[in-house]
Every structure is written in structure tokens, then in C-alpha cells.
Amino acid sequence: MGDGSLSQEEIDALLQGADDLGGAMDMGEVPAGLSDEDLGSVRSLASDVAQSMGMTLSTITGKPVTIESATVDLITRDTFTAELEGQVVQVTADFMKGAAGQHSYVLSEEPAKQISALMMAQEEGDLTEMAISALTEGFSQMSGAAVTAMSDKLGMPISTGDVRASLFENPGDVMIPEGSFVRIRYNVTTDGKSSFLDEIMDEGVARSLAGGGGAPAMPGPAPTSAAAAFEPGIQQQDIFSTQPAGNVGVQSVQFAPLTQAEQPGVSGNIGLLMDVSMQLTVELGRTKMLIKDILGMGEGTIVELDKLAGEPVDLLVNGKLIAKGEVVVIDENFGVRVTDIISPMERISSLE
Q1: Which of 55, 73, 108, 199 is deepest in the core (most CB within 10 A)?
Q2: pLDDT beyond 70 at 21
Q3: Are residues 118 and 253 both part of a single domain?
Q4: What distance in Å separates the CA atoms of residue 23 and residue 76, rounded to the nearest whole number?
């Protein structure tokens, strides 16, 4: 119409167009900000990452583990959480350098039990605090191997923040980026069992990893979950430079969380330490004796230890307790079958 107003037919046509656009997004079409080429680059990168994570998990558990990337797609929160079953474990490992933004691994209950049992060298059981600690340690190693593989392929340094696992009773509480995000699904096979592991990241991270984002992306919006208080955040502060009035420059500065953020960087180079020898000691027990009793020892003297018969023995590496086990006989030699892995928190306590 000539007067700038719209007729009812034109309004209906515009509304129909908006409905068509919404329907296209629901069908999973790639938005303008992330191209098919970007997703293809992420898919290629995921293949290298999968192989690296599988080798790392095999090394630290002593079991053959195969991890392969199956799919890379854009997904929404409702669709993603609908596929999760039972308890859910989320391992947060936000990118801090090279591709800054939200990034984590998400496992349904059965895959989480499978990997934690593998880490602890035990039969599958409940997702206890010890199991979550074992998952944290395992994914810290795998995440380090993953960022090393990414750095090598992309030719730029990439690092993550503090890695930690959290258990959620309700899949809807998982911390997920706002809007649509990229989901990489890995197939995990060990001991004849197959499961899947999801890696999720916001679109800005995916674009940076694909090489289409230029400068590293800034972190996306905060998660829309009540559990967001546990998300390792980045504090931001505006610094105003001293300039003449009317020409005030603003520079955004990032401060890393006050945690051991450098630890994942160390685990990223864990391969450099694989050939280092360490002293492994099996301790049957201990006791204290008076000097006069020690000097009076002779053939046939019996020394009573502080452990009961059949009680697990201690495995120490360089004098630090890492596991417990039971004594077995292999041919004509003694051996130890590991029955319990000491949690990372208990190991840290032993250093104090």
C-alpha cells in the first residue's frame, strides 16, 4: 500500500514467513553463525580427539578402550536432556585459552558407572563420592590429552580451566549453554560393553575450533540452570584508561578463577612423563619397637605387625599411598591384586 500501512493479506504473509523460519530451526538447520563447513571441521577435529582420549584412558586403566566420534550436530536443551537417562554426571572443563567458552562432558548413569568402575578397577556399582572422584581424575587426564591433540592440529595453544565432575539426579539440572549448542557424541567400547559420551560446547567455541571465528570467542551467556552457581566463572572488570575527557577507552580484562587452573595444563603433557620410573612398594604392615628389642632380635624372633591377617595391604608410590590390594601368588612369585583406588582427596590429605 502506498501510505506505508500493511494490509491484512500482507500481515498474514509475514506471520506465515515467521512460522516457516521457526519450523526450520526446530528441524535442526544450521544458523547463519555456524556453517556446515564449521561443523565439518569440528567433526574432523573430534576424530583426532577421540583417538587421543581412548589411548589415554587405556594407559591409565590398563584396559583396552576404544573411543570414536560418531556424530557432530547442533542441538537444543530440551532435545538433549530428553536423551539422558537416570542420574547424570557432567564433567566441566571450560575452555580458557584459544577458544574461550562453555565446554563439558555429559554421561548418563550407565556410561558413568562403566567408566568409573574402569578407573577404580572394580565391578560396576553406585555413583558414590569415590566414583565421582575417579571420573574427575580420569577426565582430567583425557581432557589434557584432548586439548593437546587440538593444539597440535590447529597450531595454537588451547587450555581448559579446572576439571571437575558433578552428579545430577535430574537431567534437567545439567549446565547447558543458552540456545542451541554443539554436541559431539563419542562411542565408548571397553570390556565388550558399548556406551556413549557426549561433549557439549557453545557455538562460539565450536566456531573458534573450526577456525572460522578469527579471534577467540568470549564466553557465552550464563547457564540457565539452578546449578549454575557451581559453574567455574570468569570475573570481568572494566579498566578505564586515562585519556582526555570525551575520549575514554574501555578495555575488558579477564581474571582466571582462584583455583589450581594450571593443573590441566600439566595433565595435557602427561605423555612426556610416561617413561619416568617410580618406586612402587607393597607394605604388609608396620610396628614400633624399643631399641633394646631391636638390638635383641635374632633368628626366630617374631615381629607382630599392626594389621590383621587377611586385611588389605597398602600400595605406595614414592612413599605415598595410592591403592590397597590383596596378596596373590603368581607361579612362584608373590603379587598384589588391586582392590581399592585411593581417591584424589585422600591422596592430597596424605601430603599435608
Answers
A1: 199
A2: no
A3: yes
A4: 14
- Report the residue count for the chain: 352
Say yes or no to pLDDT of 228 above 50: no
Structural domain boundaries, residue 87 = 25-220+227-273
Closest by alpha carbon to 199, among 156, 153, 149, 142? 142
Cell of 212: 572460522
Same domain, yes or no, for 162 and 41? yes
| pLDDT band per the 50, 70, 90 thresholds, residue 327 | confident
Q: Are residues 139 and 104 in contact, defined by beta-carbon separation less than 8 angstroms?
A: no
For 92, residues 6+ apart whose C-beta sits below 8 A from its C-beta are 103, 104, 161, 162, 163, 164, 165, 166, 175, 230, 231, 232
Q: Determine the residue type at 106.
A: V
Say how far apart CA 303 and CA 286 lie, in whole Å.
10
| Same-domain pairing of 302 and 253 | no
Residue 19 lies in a domain: no
Q: What is the percentage of the chain residues whose pLDDT exceeds 70?
A: 70
- Which CATH number characterizes residue 293's domain? 2.30.330.10
Q: Report the SS3 class of residue 209.
A: helix
What element of type H or E holds 196? strand 193-201
The verdict on 300 and 205 lying in the same domain is no
Find out whether 180 and 76 touch, Cβ atoms under 8 Å: yes
pLDDT over threshold 90, residue 63: no
pLDDT tens for 209-226 read 887 433 343 444 444 443
Name which of 59, 307, 47, 26 is nearest 179 in CA terms.
Answer: 26
